[in-house]
Amino acid sequence: MDFRKGLAFSTPIILGYFPVSVTFGVLARTAGFTELETFLCSLLIFAGASQFALISAATFPESVIVPVFLNLRHLVYSTIVHRTVKTGKPYLTAFGLTDEVFATTVSTKATEKFIHGLEIGAYSAWVFGTLAGIYFGNLLISTPLYPSLVFSITALFFVLLLPSIRRHRVSVMVGGIISAIFLFSGLSSLAVIGAGILTPLLTAKAGEVLKWRG
Question: Which PANTHER family does the record cross-reference, listed alphabetically (predicted)?
Fold first, then answer.
């Protein structure tokens, strides 16, 4: 698969990223960030959850520590991609390896050029969406459309999950249960990290037990 196919495959990601990045632009400006600071967040960081954590942090240490922990999952993403795809530009590929890009990559026979196509589409949507939020956000806040912008990233994750449910039913169920436990325990900020760490460990252990019994 080449760059153009990757760009075409990025269409669902673009449709999900643009409204979320618009929301980020609005919230960052509301939180007191300047137009330049808001734009640079998306241009240089390009990590949705971390950017939202950054603008909502109460202290400087919190603005550093929380995003770092949120992004630890990318170590796993990079390792998997490095083992399955021949990379000639690893730093460039790693920069754009978001959750959605990774999910699309592992569900296709991806090449590095294909991944770059995915990443360019996703990155462009995120940066231009942030600009739209910076300059036109005030017009959106007073409309019924604004609450739906916040939900769009959740909808995007669900759409990406659907193709994998049949192949990874056990992992999906275990991950969902773990996330729910954290959520209803009042630890929603740890749900993604906890599920990301515990699900592979538990499902791998279960697989070993079943193999041993078989």
Answer: INNER MEMBRANE PROTEIN YGAZ
2: region left, alpha or beta (phi > 0 left; psi from -120 to 50 alpha): beta
Same domain for 116 and 27, yes or no, is yes
12, 124 in Cβ contact below 8 A?
A: no
Residue-range definition of the domain harbouring residue 191: 168-214
E strands, 32-153, are: none
Domain shared by 159 and 190, yes or no? no
For residues 182 and 194, is the Cβ–Cβ distance under 8 A? yes
141 and 175 co-located in one domain: no
Count of the separate structural domains present in the chain:
2
